[in-house]
């Protein structure tokens, strides 16, 4: 009897699963097209191809990345599909493939000099115009395969495609895909916080890291951890990206912009004011001349300061020699930094130092 009931339940589950797959599969209509590089260049120059910077990554390819890609095209190697989409204004949105498109256009326009090629070594130092005319024509006639989403594909679906493509490997950091996949008023607020002059001065990031939204990563961690410290970080299992994603999604849903934004901004600015007095011009850096801010160190100091100020708003600045002692250095090292117990330990350490506990 039990076996029959299980078999019946399993049949129902399979039916539900099948129905859902069929329904969702109809949400995305697309076809596959081949576009010659020359055609892509013309469309891009005409403004008919555009990049939705609201959720795509900044252009982070360096010269080496670009040359490596061009070498692959010249050699006739398979290039990963790009994703385009029709839009209501008649233009074509580059859902995924912006950096490849930019690089192809830059090369054909003669603005990219090939260097560091490991296989086509005889072409090092060449621009497109230096190549043999026959090679130029073959390059321009090379087809790039594109998955073309039909008009009517919603922005949410396009963002979901971008997210899934860019979390399938190591191409994008969690912050980059988060910006593309989780939009909302709270996410907008986080972006505004990264424009704070004092924050940028006390928590510097390299140009390359900031192109990948390191500032938003630091600010996201500050609010997520300071909001959830007292509750013991419910749901935190060591996967920071997943934890931050869920936190921001929930804040986007519940964000009461007028009252909460004022409260959160004040909390952020008060933390920075205290940090500036406590840490001086070095800020959250490990060393005075460092050009980057270690995440674990920023988390410990910023959240610890905020929690201490929550208990004593007019807290006096204490001796800060402990910031350079081995004990603090040890608990803010990157080894197992995302372990929950270590996260709690380093935040608690700073809070107790400030409160004199």
Write a brief caption for the model.
This protein has 357 residues and is an alpha/beta fold. 55% of the residues lie in helices and 7% in strands.
What does this protein structure show overall?
The chain has 357 residues and is of the alpha/beta class. 55% of the residues lie in helices and 7% in strands. Strand 3 and strand 4 form a beta hairpin. Helix 2 (37-45) packs across helix 4, helix 6 runs antiparallel to helix 7 (174-181) and helix 13 (257-279) packs across helix 14 (295-311). The protein is globular, with a radius of gyration of 25 Å. The chain starts with a helix and ends with a helix.
Query: Approximately what portion of the residues adopt beta-strand conformation?
Result: 5-15%
Residue share in helix: 40-55%
What's the number of extended β-strand segments?
Answer: 5
User: What's the helix count?
Assistant: 16
User: Rg, please?
Assistant: 25 Å
Major sheet: size, sense and barrel closure? 5 strands, mixed
Structural class: alpha/beta
Give the low-pLDDT segments: none
What is the CA-CA span between the terminal residues?
Answer: 64 Å
Shape descriptor reads globular
Q: Give average pLDDT, whole number.
A: 85
Query: N-to-C SSE series?
Result: HEHEHEEHHEHHHHHHHHHHH
Strand order of the largest sheet: 1-5-3-4-2
């Amino acid at each position: 009897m039990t076996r029959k009931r299980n078999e019946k339940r399993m049949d129902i589950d399979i039916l539900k699963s099948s129905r859902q797959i069929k329904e969702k599969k109809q949400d995305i209509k697309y076809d596959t097209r081949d576009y010659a590089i020359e055609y892509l260049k013309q469309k891009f120059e005409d403004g008919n191809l555009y990049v939705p910077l609201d959720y795509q990554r900044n252009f982070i390819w360096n010269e080496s990345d670009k040359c490596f890609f061009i070498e692959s095209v010249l050699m006739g190697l398979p290039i990963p599909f790009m994703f385009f989409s029709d839009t209501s204004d008649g233009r074509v949105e580059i859902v995924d493939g912006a950096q490849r498109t930019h690089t192809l256009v830059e090369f054909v326009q003669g603005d990219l000099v090939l260097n560091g090629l490991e296989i086509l070594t005889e072409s090092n130092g060449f621009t497109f115009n230096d190549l043999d005319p026959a090679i130029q024509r073959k390059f321009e006639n090379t087809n790039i395969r594109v998955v073309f989403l039909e008009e009517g594909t919603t922005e949410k679906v396009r963002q979901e495609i971008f997210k899934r493509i860019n979390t399938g490997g190591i191409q994008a950091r969690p912050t980059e895909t988060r910006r593309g996949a989780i939009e909302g008023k709270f996410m907008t607020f986080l972006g505004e916080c990264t424009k704070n002059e004092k924050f940028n001065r006390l928590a510097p990031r390299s140009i390359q890291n900031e192109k990948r939204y390191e500032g938003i990563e630091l600010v996201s961690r500050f609010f997520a951890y300071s909001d959830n410290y007292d509750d013991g970080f419910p749901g935190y299992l060591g996967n920071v990206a997943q934890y931050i994603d869920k936190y921001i999604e929930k804040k986007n849903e519940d964000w009461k912009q007028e009252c909460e934004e004022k409260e959160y901004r004040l909390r952020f600015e008060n933390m920075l004011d205290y940090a500036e007095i406590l840490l001086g011009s070095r800020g959250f850096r490990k060393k005075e001349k460092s050009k980057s801010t270690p995440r674990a160190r920023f988390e410990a100091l910023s959240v610890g300061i905020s929690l201490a100020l929550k208990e004593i708003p007019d807290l006096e600045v204490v001796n800060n020699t402990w910031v350079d002692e081995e004990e603090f250095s040890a608990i803010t090292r990157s080894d197992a930094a995302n372990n929950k117990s270590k996260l709690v330990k380093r935040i608690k350490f700073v809070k107790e130092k400030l409160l004199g506990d």
